[in-house]
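Lab notebook, bench 4. Still working through the backlog of constructs that have no structural model yet. Next entry is a single chain of 237 residues. Request: give me the structure tokens for it.
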Amino acid sequence: MLRLSLLFLALVAAASAAHDSPWFLGLDGGVYLDSGGRIQRVGLGSGSSLAVFGQTAYLIGLDQCVWTADPAGDWRQLDSIGRGRKVVVDSEGTVYLLGLDGGVYQFTGGGWKRLGLATAADLAAGGPGQLFVIGTDGHVWSSPGQGKWSVYNALALGKRVAAARDGTVYVIGTDNGVYRVGSGQIQRLGLATGQDVAVGTAGQVGIVGMDNGVYIYDGSGWRRLGSGMAKQVAWPQ
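Model written out:
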């Protein structure tokens, strides 16, 4: 795990200079950070899904397990059993996993607890215990905790989902458009199309475009961050 330790130390240094900036997984699986509008590589190593809480990083490694690193750069496996496709963290630092079986799991400190019987294609976390998924039916489902799932918006269909701390939901639709979704409303954010979406703690919305460029929504339109290419966007929670 030496390469991962070096990677995390570089990430911590970069994050201290750009606390509210998004992090990215590049097409090569490398980790990148926006620094003054430029997307720069901040270390070695690779992964398939990244989540960040404060200065603690969570990464699904090549073994499909979740690894975590503290500020000292010491990496350890959260659990040798749990394997997944995506890792997310809510506003209190609770870690959730979208398993290889499509189940949603919460890390309890001693292992992974399945939250209900839902199966999902994508997973997002917002406020404490607040989860959203794209179900296998394409609909957005929500859970306030304890694995009780309900349809969030019967008209919203999507591929990817992200959630803000206040519970605002953003979806990459089946047409690849970017939408803000409420329990009773759907609003398209400009004409941009994307593959992945993320939300920052201050409500920033970012996407990975169909061209793999990274774009930020400023309230009236989308602007590109540098010329880098990515497959995932993640803000520190």
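Notes after review: The helical segments are 2-17. The mean pLDDT is 84. Flag for follow-up if needed.
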